[in-house]
Amino acid sequence: MDGTLIFWKFENPLTQGFNKQQELEYFYRYDFTPGESYGGAGLEFIEINLLAIDRQLSIGLRGKEIQYVKNGQLVKSEVYVQYGDCENGYPNTIYFVKRRLWRRFYEIFFKARSEEGFVTREIDLSKIFAGLE
User: Quick one: how far is CA 107 from the chain centroid?
Assistant: First the structure.
């Protein structure tokens, strides 16, 4: 888009939640510029952005996806992606089945009970893409 990078995508059939999360994300103009706010959509190909892209491609993905499976069906994934020097990735929950409004409220107040019967799988995102080095 006008000579800017909008997004890049790492896809793997094992990480359905991470795949879906990437569809919702895109780069902003000042993502890698300290002290600046978001700006418009898309990264310019300037030195600070090129260095950040090179670093991310070199070190690969960092974080994890926790999948919740019930009766053989993937119900939801919690995706934790670590950006920059952040030790803990921020959580993003991706749902693969429709939930009624009352069910969403129930899950807020009774999280432990609402997760009964789930089988969980944890996928290390660095095993999906470990970087180019």
Answer: 21
